[in-house]
Specification:
This protein is of the alpha+beta class. The chain has helices at about 5-10, 40-55, 60-70, 90-95, 140-160, 165-170, 175-180, 200-210, 245-275, 290-295, and strands at about 20, 25-35, 80-85, 110, 115-125, 125-135, 195, 220-225, 230-240, 245. The strands form three sheets. A four-stranded antiparallel β-sheet has the order 7-2-9-8, covered by helices on one side. Strands 3-6-5-4 form a four-stranded antiparallel β-sheet, with helices on both faces. Strands 1-10 form a two-stranded antiparallel sheet. Helix 1 packs across helix 9 (about 245-275). The two termini are about 35 Å apart. About 25% of the residues are buried.
């Protein structure tokens, strides 16, 4: 929809029907994961090599996966992941899997999720199935402090206007969901970066509740969606008080409503134009439905 169409749509809304929006905020974040030290990595590798030896000696891969795998999705299923096609799993896992024959087991493989033992099950066309045992190296306070130091340095640079929050998020944040949007969290229900306070993650709400617009928190512990330990800083970009909808503050929402109406009108127009040439078959159990039978007349 064009800006003119958005304005025309809004101008036609009766004054007493214009919606009233509660307080909304825009919050940004920069996330840096805690680094895993070499000692923790070597411990995970050693444990997997021990499990590999036990499997080669005759123990069940599935049984050991149930006991030791840290993959919450597949561990209880004996490590079974199901069928996947090329490009659907992380590159390291896929590359190791495709080298195996049915029944064979890989050496220890590292990916972004941790360390794996992979057992190849079968191929079906262009799909293949595997099971795995996943171990995630433990992180500690010392590992998180490295991430905290980086974030403290970034925070100082942002507050001194040496770099914008959006640029810092794009260049340094590992959170793919927000880094490409200037670090701003998205409203998953309505789209855009403005979120009503009552829809905000409680962990964020209690932090930004006492913040002023433009302020940035010190680094804080954070657990990513895939369960990794990390540190992050939060930025309160804006705080929009309760208000009646208007084009200046709510253009994106009004634009979405105008677009929705335009789509519905186009669909209705197509239906009216083609209803005499498009035939519907009504199942016997719905022949008494007045809405359906009327639409077929």
């Amino acid at each position: 929809v064009t800006p003119r169409e958005v304005k025309d749509y809004f101008d036609k809304v009766p004054k007493d029907s214009i919606p009233y929006f509660s307080t909304e905020v825009e919050v940004g974040q920069i996330v840096i994961p805690a680094q895993v030290n070499d000692q923790a990595k070597q411990a995970a590798i050693a444990q997997l090599n021990d499990l590999r030896g036990r499997i080669l000696a005759g123990e069940s891969f599935e049984t050991l996966a149930k006991q030791f795998s840290q993959d919450p999705g597949s561990g209880a299923q004996g490590g079974y992941l199901g069928f996947f096609k090329k490009g659907e799993l992380v590159p390291e896992y896929e590359a190791a899997s495709r080298k195996l024959e049915p029944g064979q087991m890989s050496p220890v493989v590292e990916s972004q999720f941790g360390f794996h033992l992979i057992q190849f099950i079968e191929r079906k066309g262009d799909s293949y199935s595997t099971r795995h045992i996943l171990l995630k190296p433990a992180t500690g306070t010392a590992d998180a402090s490295v991430a905290a130091t980086k974030l403290t340095r970034l925070r100082t640079q942002i507050l001194k206007d040496s770099i914008s929050f959006a640029k810092a998020a794009k260049d340094f944040s590992t959170d793919k969901a927000t880094s490409g949007n200037g670090g701003l969290l998205s409203n998953r229900q309505e789209g855009g970066s403005r979120t009503p306070l009552d829809k905000l993650d409680p962990a964020i709400f209690f932090i930004i509740d006492t913040m002023k617009v433009g302020h940035i928190t010190p680094p804080m512990p954070y657990r990513t969606d895939d369960g990794k330990e990390a540190m992050r800083i939060l930025y309160l970009k804006s705080n929009i008080p309760p208000h009646q909808a208007n084009l200046l503050d709510d253009y994106q929402k009004i634009s979405q409503a105008a677009l929705s109406q335009k789509k519905n009108q186009a669909l209705d127009a197509w239906y009216e134009k083609n209803r005499s040439t498009v035939y519907l078959e009504v199942a016997p159990e719905y022949t008494q439905c007045k809405v359906l039978t009327a639409s077929t007349e």
